[in-house]
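Entry: protein O-GlcNAc transferase
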Amino acid sequence: MLPGSAAAAAGVEVAMALGVDPSDAEQAAALGSGAFAGGGKGREVLGQAQKQAEQTTSTILLTLAKLFQDATASPIAGPHGALTLGGIPASISLLLPLYYLSISMHNSASTCNNLGILLSSIPVVTTVVNAMGQPQQLNGQALAMQYYTQGLQLDPKHPHIYTNLGSLLKDLGHLNEAIKMYGKAVESKPDFDVALANLGNAIKDQGRTQDSVVWYRRAVMVNRRFPEALCGLVNALLAVCDWSEVYVGEDGKGGGGWMVDVSDLVLRQLRDGCQYGAGAFHTAGPIEAWVAAIIEAMGDTRQAAAQIWTQRLQPFYQPGFDRVASQVCEGGYLIQLVERMMRRSQRRWYVDAYGKGMIRAEMELPRVSVASTHGVYARPKLPSCLVTPAVPTVLPFHTFTYPLSPRQIRLICHRNALRISQSTLTQMWVPDVVYPPPSPPAPKINIGYVSSDFNNHPLAHLMQSVFGFHDRSRFNIFLYATTPSDESPYRRKIESEAQHFIDVSAWSNQQVVERIVMDNIHVLMNLNGYTKGARNEIFAARPCPVQMEFMGFAGSMASRWTDWVVADPIVCPPEMTGVDRWRWERVQRATDCMADLDPEEESEEWVYSDRFIYMPHTYFVNDHKQGFRETLPAKTIEVATLASNGEGAEEGSVGLREDEQLWASEELKRYAMRRELFPGLPDDYVIFADFNQLYKCDPMLFRLWLRILRRVPKSILWLLRFPAAGEHHLLREAREYAGDQVASRDRGSVSGYDRVQCAHDGGGYTLVGDAFVDVAEAYA
């Protein structure tokens, strides 16, 4: 050991800490054997020093792993570029060894927590041999559960572990247990904003929207800029029509309320998201390699193809290219480019196997073989430097009811599509080649429908008969149900009438995709869109050459895994589409691809980046003709007879034509139900009805309805208690805006009925309404 070195100085400090004179050779020699007489603490102190060293090393490894874990979750590289370990990019393969080394040296609750977070995100399922020598399936969520449990044994009051364990339980469908864990997190740390917001989310998922408000409000009071808490509070307040905090200031004297904060949040998140994947093209390879891969995948035989693609990609290789100022999202463009290459490769495979003009065969042709292609139709890979992109906290479904601009709506949908694409295409189960195309129709076209709503759900109410109506001489119909049966009559009807009904609720995305490929599906229909329960990852894997969206989501998918959206010109006007803008203005950016305009562009003149198949009148399917043929209950007929003494129904139906008799029967039916529902309501009163969920209503629309009531004195407004907590807020708003005469009772003439009347369930009684007043968007 060199005198004056750092090691020598450290040795002196250790010796002095042990009570040893460094200049005494005998004391120093005795130290090694623990025989030093100065208290006899040599071994003990050395043991403590070793323990401290292990803890320090463990903390260093934990901190390093956390830095890399944060880097994998961040779509934007730091000021010094992407974080690497000696050139090794941040990834799960790097993180796990760091965490395992850390926990092997010092078992801490924090390390268990971080390992649980990481493991819960790993979708891989493997088989191991347990202590009994039996094979056992193990996945990331099961391992995460073990580490969370171990962490709580080390620290029974660790709020982060309780919160993350709650989220894991919620993902596994154990909502009540999740709420208990969130509650314990809040008990341990009452100002923990994440736990407060998660508790609000879980309570809202139980259907207790009004109860969730208090937890969201507490989270926002702790951290006003916490996106999940802010949006959760606004969504909950809107769901129960409590508009006082959302659209006005906290003092009730005007201003923007919480919605102003949400608007600022959206602007900030969309601006930051534009930097996603900056430098990804350059990091992944030279421009020449990209151009060659694009031309090969797309089969681009144009003479100037190399020059065209070089010009398009050149800006990404220029130093100082300002992506934010140019409103170019490099990562988003790269993902869309890879998806386009996938689709073109699948198309080339079909043409090479069956011929360019082959659209129908007289007999079934053999399926293409993946093994025989020798990787010719390779799936283009996303660069490993492209992490999972962040998405705005405001979800696509909320864009229907939030005051957002066309570009904001477009980008919110687009960013969600990018996240689904990236997270799907980087899964280990995705094969190295694109999925093989189906053989030509022979002669029937195979159509697949994917939905989580083949149960007691509005979509099933509307479409329950559609699947049995298909012409089976021209089509084979496959239904893939991603949720288990609720044993409702809707599910039973759909199952019994569908040609092929497959319950895939317990299947992984990989299994569903492979089944769709095996079923030789030509057209795959997405009946969810961006709604609860959707499994859009199935579509992002591109198992089918033609993929469409229908009914579930009347908005923009803004994805390259949706080829067509079935709609009509009313709900999705052609002039609000990117295709129409391109057709008339012929505007082009480097990141546009013919009529597929880049959603990132600054224009506020269009919303939809999708391509539409327009139905001539309406895209909106309903099952009214089949679903409302029920016979009139005896009790209802009795009520009508006693109440009206024959009034209100057509008299003397003898001699009437068949259609007139049917009309008279319907009038009797309607009048009977009206008497049963509103026994004290005079016959000359008009019933204005709306059976939407209350979150779709806003103050401006509700006040319009109140003005209608004011103009039509003999009328009531009939709404659903959906949720029931909304009734109180609506009646309060009605009294404040229109007064008691309109909001409460029409002094003696209504005999106890509120002018704004709420009901539990419309059901078949929707026939009772005289006029339906619909909402502006996301209508019933």
